[in-house]
Amino acid sequence: MSRRRLLTGFAVLLALLALLPTLGWLHELWLTRSLASAAPLALPAERGAQLQRGAYLARIGNCAGCHTARGGPAYAGGMGLQTPFGTVFASNLTPHPRDGLGGWSADDFWRALHHGRSRDGRLLYPAFPYPSMTQMTRADADALFAWLQTLAPVEKPNRPHELDWPYRSQTALAVWRLLYFRPGQTQPAEIEAPLARGRYLVQAVAHCAECHAPRNRWGALQDLPRMDGGLLTNEMWTAPSLHDAREAGLKVWSEAQLAQWLRSGWSTQGVALGPMAGVIGDSLRHLTESDARAMAQYLLSLPAENPPRAVPKPAPTAQMQLGARVYRDHCASCHGSQGQGLGAHGTPAYPALAGNRTALQDSPLNLLQVLANGAYAASTPAHPRPYGMPPFRHALSDAELAAVASFVRQSWGNAAAAVSELELRRVK
Ligand code: HEC
Ligand code: HEC
Ligand code: HEC
Fold first, then answer.
1. Core-most of 26, 344, 361, 403, by most CB within 10 Å?
2. Which one is the CATH code of 194-300: 1.10.760, 2.60.120, 1.10.10, 1.10.3470?
């Protein structure tokens, strides 16, 4: 009897699995039809103003951050994004007729951004953050397109993706989109008030949630607007929660201070490092004063939530002693003997480690990244010459690095779990 039930269950499961691809493609058909009927007319814009707007949006959307290969021509694509499913290569966005967007129309471009479909109908991988950018207004998409078309065309064919089976199949992607992708769209009138504009910039253009929201095991963002913190797809950094005070809850700042942080990435309460330094240095530092204020207003409206945490076990005494010695010899000269941070030339230069959020995050990943590979804040007009911190991966042994990490996490009132050598080796 129970065996028969098992077999029936199995048969139903198989039938469902066979049904999913069909449903996936039906969903695509439906999406395409709804798109064709819903495509609104772009607002007529004066060409000069439209190009200026497009250039600005490209910066705030950090298109070049992904669409430029290291050392390669800007916007010509070729950079590989590592994901747990394989590597996806960003495309050539210059107006080259064969390799780039040369033959594209504004409608084709809108379809890619809003709908995740290439000009030839191919479904695009969500490593391209269209699940966020789908919320852009048509007028903004048109401005982006108009500006991209003014770039010099670069002859550089797109690199084929290197994805594992079954992720490389378009049917798998259609199923994924059936389950997780919902096109959104915003009308210009909806985003005139500062709070609404801030939300639009954070969610649709600067796509903060693509890093700051957790993903499920299929790589889909969960609770998109909440930004509970997530592991980056290359699994090298974690992006902290933006509403948990012990991670990167933003309520330590006033609206004006947060707006200033967004454009500089530096304050005594938190320095943008690693991928976040890139976001600030390449993108957010170009924010206009009023847009930075609007984003700050929205970010401060996120609910402050401090989920309970277990009290960490104290680090072994021997590890704390070793950590204290390493700290005195290698860190105190810059960060102060009590982790209080130090100023130079009358301005704060070295961040405090007492109460420091990189040190206190649940996951020690970012702290270990900083210790092993150094910390380099973005250079911005508001903070032009960051001091920088040298990498310690060669100067200190694994045991010493883990010990100083544990010491920093459990001194001067800091209370976070101790770090083992094993965790450290994973980062290295
Ligand atoms: C996080 C990295 C990332 C960012 C940021 C990003 N893209 Fe992309 N984009 C990609 C990747 C990867 C692809 C390739 C997807 C594929 O081929 O399935 C892509 C594809 C595209 C395509 C489709 C090209 C084609 O040939 O089909 C367009 C258009 C595009 N991006 C525009 C933009 C614009 C405009 C911005 C900035 C507002 C932007 N992207 C920001 C990663 C990114
Ligand atoms: C490419 C991925 C990525 C994107 C996009 C991104 N972040 Fe981050 N962010 C990170 C990572 C990784 C960290 C952790 C490193 C650090 O502390 O700077 C971080 C840290 C932060 C911090 C904490 C800094 C501190 O030390 O307290 C804040 C605040 C923040 N991000 C805000 C934002 C906002 C707002 C946006 C959108 C405008 C955004 N981030 C977009 C990856 C990203
Ligand atoms: C030469 C000076 C110097 C030394 C030595 C140094 N640091 Fe740093 N550290 C910095 C600077 C400067 C920053 C901020 C990055 C910037 O402004 O460019 C930083 C950032 C950090 C951060 C991240 C702070 C944040 O807000 O996200 C941590 C954690 C940290 N250091 C820990 C240590 C530890 C532990 C040691 C000893 C093993 C150490 N540092 C040694 C200068 C130093």
1. 403
2. 1.10.760
